[in-house]
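Changelog excerpt

This revision adds worked examples to the README so contributors can see how folded entries look when concatenated. The first example is reproduced verbatim below.
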Amino acid sequence: VSLLRGGTAVQQRLAAIISPCLRGARCGSAACRVCGHRFRSYFAGHLAEFIATDYADWCAVSLVPANQTYPLGRLHQFNPNRFKDRVRRQLERSELKDAAVVLGVDFAVQIFSQPNRAPLWRPHAYMLIRDYPTNVIRAELDKYYPPAQHTPRPIYSRKIDKKTVLRVTSYAYKCEFKIRTQIVGADGNDDTRGDPLEPRHLLEIAPLLHQWGFGGRYLLRGFCRTSDPNGKLTLQINDPISEFVRIAMSETEPAL
């Protein structure tokens, strides 16, 4: 908050929203560290509970589009709704069209090993896909996400171990982001090191997180909304055999 107070007029207005956040009177901003962690715990916990008891297998998929890069100071040009719509259309045109999918939009600042290359914001996706094996997922998505020089591995998928599912679902919605620096690992292969964002990065992304809200950074596909007698909205997967995904939608609406 102290960083925001010394920033631009937009950043100062955000500081005025977040600073009064207290127990029993939360600000509800997606840029607030406390509210962000509360939402993430709620979202990931209920999602983990559902996946752990679901009869179907799930896979976790990291998706790093090579063409989604933004210079520092230009992250406002990224449109998360357009990003999600593109992934949604790709799924609809593939063998994954009937899959239930949870997608979270994540961010990193990439630092290149070449000293003459400027750092870039790298928006990317973390998906949880139901009832499709990793080979089918790769075959369907590879055509949309070819490797590039600065993105040699745009897709990584693996089957979820339901014994450690909470660790996986917590990646579906992050509220802290990293600087990824290209290094050479101990084995001599290319690797990356993760470090916390610098103050200038936090000042840039915080107003955008608030603008996008919680709902702006995730996609639920293959689910339908229902409500209980008390009017509490929940999600139900589009499969009559499966149980309810107990996520209260009142907690997931954008906070503006």
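The second example, added in the same revision:
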Amino acid sequence: SFFKVKNWAKQCTTLINAPSLNKRPKQVKTIAFYHNHYPIGGIERCISYLMPLFQSLGYRVILITDKDASTDAYPIPPGVKRIIFGEENTILGNPLPKKAFSTRCELWDKCIRDNSIDAVYYAFTVSSVRLLDFLSIRSAGAYVIYHFHQCFTMSLQHQSMNFFFDFAYLLRFVDTVIGLSRVDERFFRLCQTRAYYFPNKCFFEELPQPHAESVSSRMNCLWCARIALQKQPLEITKRRVPSFRINMPTSPIPISTKPMD
């Protein structure tokens, strides 16, 4: 609803300069990683690498999630404290009920102050409550580091043009944004935001060596990512080879593919 306010750009500039949003610790000692959940996935894998890395650099590390721990999750490094807000306080892809806004703000404030958190590494790219969370974190006196795990043009593909421009204003409420490409980094800097390019870790040495035959001559493909719209699984079907086959392993739980029908 913030983005539907008239003269949003002017309101944003006024809000970002509020003294209560500009209190920062002089030194960062404790870093909290936030994601809605912590199952086995791409973003979660990045977090699983970064938590022990920051520990080795001498930082105290905390993991914050909305959902409880699941069996299909990456292990949490020893010494990392986990804080669970509760799934009722956020809904993936849907707006929060109005009565839950104040509760969520209070959760962030108490969490940051009680655990002396200096910076929050916000890795939940598609959160529907990002603006609320950014305001809550900054009001509590902590830095906001936003790791955007998508191409910045995704909003142009699946959402409106207005949302794309509103996103530029949203970035002004973070202290640092991390992108996955140099192009993203340059776009984020145009939004008056400190931005960095941070490539995901790859293990090319673990990949099997390619065969002598041409890749284009192969007729079978194994899709290893989630079957989700933003992963663009149907792009691979555009190959004009009649006998080309895509194998998509799924969990026993039925997965809705209605948006891609």
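Reviewer comment on example two: Residues 253-261 have pLDDT under 50 and may be disordered. The radius of gyration is 20 Å.
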